[in-house]
Amino acid sequence: MALQRLTLWGRGLKMCILLVRRQTINWESKWQNRWVSSESKSDYGKFRLTAGKIYGDRDREKGLQTTENSKFYAISSRFKSFSNKGRSLVIQYTVKHEQKIDCGGGYIKVFPFNLRQKNMSGESQYYIMFGPDICGSETKKVHVILNYKNKLNSMKKQIRCKVDGFTHLYTLILRPDQTYEVKIDNEQVESGSLEDDWDFLPPRTINDPTVNKPEDWDDVAEIDDPKDVKPEDWDEPEHILDNSAEKPEDWDDVKKGEWKLILFMDSFLNSTIDNPNYKGIWPHPQIENPSYSPDFNIYSYDNISVIGLDLWQVRSGTIFDNFLITDNEEYAEEFGDDTWGETKVKFNPNYCLELPEAECRQGKKIGMGEQIAVRVRPFSSFAVFGFSRSVRSCLVQSWRSEKDSL
């Protein structure tokens, strides 16, 4: 297998590029040399290298897959430390929940250099946690948790994650101008100010403690209709029985006593009208917060050194791939198009002319949606960026070193 590392310099940081020619190499053994499994628990779930059940190109789409149900997972890969001070930080990867995940994480974490990888756990300090988290019908969100002065801060906005069984590309961008952007499948889904959308700092202004709401300020939006009075013949017993209630099947007469029909209050309720004197919510005058002090380095981290998967899954089968850390937003988008984008095709019934009948039926069943890689013809040549062809990771770093051998 012919391999070559090229050291390129430009506007960005150092870029490690691994060119791969179309020859065979045992990637199955190589990835385990770069990824360290945690030993902080004895019963962590195991990862394996696979493209899964549905793929466009079997070799190009191999990634790390969770394999055991109802397990915690902890694995990480180290690279030379760098700081993103004065530069954008772009974190990107792909994740595929082909098992129709019911409850579990699909996020990644970025750690400082002092992480002891074999001791990594949910208690380990990290800089950034980013990616999808799904559990039941209520939790389907993208986490963006940032460490600021050793305190973890969750994003105040809600971003819905993808919940299908296809591969999706997740991208987080932190910029020196204190803005951020989140993209899914190379399309922006959220953006804004780091200071506004996280509670890193005290508010810029606070209520003026010397000013109180005027006594005649009416902030009640609705009042009882004075014309709606209780009829003289209104029968209003103190309590009435709820005849629709039924005795619960698990009712224990010995412990709880004899079950009886429920009593509830029955009272006359006035209708309401808009309050003609309503002035709205009183706007409390603001003053500058003496506790507020701007920080123009919220976006930056020193000694970024480890990327890891630290998560729990009820139903296993998630595949992680195409890890990327860089300072170049355009490069990240191109890298996403060249990896995830090349294996994302619309379903084409003509593929059935080339596939076995069973495989064609499977493709139709899964691929009638907008995106599914049923079959992608092999490319004549291709480049793989980073540590391996299987678990691709181009780490664009702010350090200079001699050209070491792969």
**Top-tier CATH class of the largest domain:** Mainly Beta
Number of strands: 24
Beta fraction of the residues?
25-35%
Classify the oligomer: single chain
Any low-confidence stretches, pLDDT <50, length ≥5?
A: 1-27, 345-355, 358-406
Number of helices: 5
Mean of residue pLDDT? 78
Q: What general form does the structure show? A: extended
What number of structural domains do the residues give? Answer: 2
SSE order, as H and E?
Answer: EEHEEEEEEEEEEEEEHEEEHEEEEEHHE
First-to-last CA distance: 12 Å
Q: Please name the CATH topology of the largest domain.
A: Jelly Rolls
Helix content: under 10%
Indicate the CATH architecture of the largest domain. Answer: Sandwich
Describe this structure in words.
GO terms for molecular function: calcium ion binding; carbohydrate binding; protein folding chaperone; unfolded protein binding. It comes from Sphenodon punctatus (Tuatara). Keywords: Chaperone, Disulfide bond, Endoplasmic reticulum. Residues 205-249 are annotated as: Disordered. It is a single chain. The chain has 406 residues and is mostly beta strands. The chain folds into 2 domains: 3-203 and 296-344 and 379-395, Jelly Rolls; 212-283, no CATH class. It is 9% helix and 33% strand. It has helices at 27-34, 194-197, 253-256, 329-338, 357-367; strands at 3-8, 15-20, 35-37, 47-50, 63-66, 71-82, 89-97, 103-105, 108-112, 128-135, 139-148, 151-154, 167-174, 179-184, 187-193, 205-207, 222-224, 239-241, 263-265, 272-274, 286-288, 304-313, 318-326, 393-395. Strands 3, 6, 8, 9, 10, 11, 12 and 22 form an 8-stranded antiparallel sheet that branches. It starts with a strand and ends in an 11-residue tail after the last strand.
